[in-house]
UniProtKB/TrEMBL annotation:
Gene3D superfamilies: 3.60.21.10. GO terms for molecular function: acid phosphatase activity; ferric iron binding; ferrous iron binding. Its cofactor is Fe cation. Belongs to the metallophosphoesterase superfamily. Purple acid phosphatase family. Its EC number is 3.1.3.2. GO terms for cellular component: extracellular region. It catalyses: a phosphate monoester + H2O = an alcohol + phosphate. This is Purple acid phosphatase. PANTHER family: TARTRATE-RESISTANT ACID PHOSPHATASE TYPE 5 (PTHR10161).
Amino acid sequence: MALWFMVGIICGLCFVCLSAELQRLEQPGKGDGSLSFLVVGDWGRRGSFNQSRVAFQMGKIGEKLDIDFVVSTGDNFYDNGLSSEHDTAFEESFTDVYTANSLQKQWYSGKNMTANSLSYAVLGNHDYRGDAEAQLSPLLRKIDSRWLCLRSFIVNAELAEIIFVDTTPFVNTYFLDPEDHTYDWRGVTPRKPYIANLLKDVESALRESTATWKIVVGHHAIRSVGHHGDTEELVSHLLPILKANNVDFYMNGHDHCLEHISDTDSRIQFLTSGAGSKAWRGDVKQLNREGLSFFYDGQGFMSVQLTQSDAEIVFYDVYGNILHRLNASKQFLHSSM
């Protein structure tokens, strides 16, 4: 989920009920109407595997861009999520690592709270291997008020609408061949109606959205040339909904890399930011590389800046170097190194 984190919001955070089941968070934009945030995934390792170095650079870029919040694409705590609400891994991998001033904004505070900025997170497959509901617990927000993690929800940031989707239950392997892993499926089973209702809610939210930018966030990739490759269940069930509703960006983690792939028959840009700590050097699939603009097999993160007419997305390495830049508008898209 999202840094976490969840997603963070600035002042005046509140929940609004939809006709569907997804919770909606309202986030006012900046005074000039712009929006900026960071995206990181697959990070929670008590600072090891360069997690602390990535966090340090996030703090520097976050200050430079005056970010409004942080998004976590899941796998928030390794190797098996949190064992309970009292697991010390929460503070050791989150509170004690993301210490920069620019990351001390409210990452999430709960209902009717006033905050400077928030963070949003979704659950990844490793999070489901522990006590998944512990990460959703309000108790964690009492320990660190920046934290917000939900299964699926919507952030309405005026300029952009960001829909967070719980993708782990879509993946057949976790149910049919879990190997020696135990998954916490409370709140998910029975699986078939859970997925059907979620897809219905996502389609409804996207169809009704009037936002300039439509963004969907999930843990698993729809398109990737990394270790796990494309997630066929999402290609079959989620991607057609995104295409039909003119989604601009799909952001994910899961593969421990940074990458940018352009869809060949729609406006969607697939953006992987799953390099918050341990990375997989040289683990690249040779199949289905169509639309690939950028791939990096080291640690890093991503920034997003949005205005009414333009978007700029930048990928950074563990030293803060710019690796790749995507500039998008409603008229055209182009990217550069």
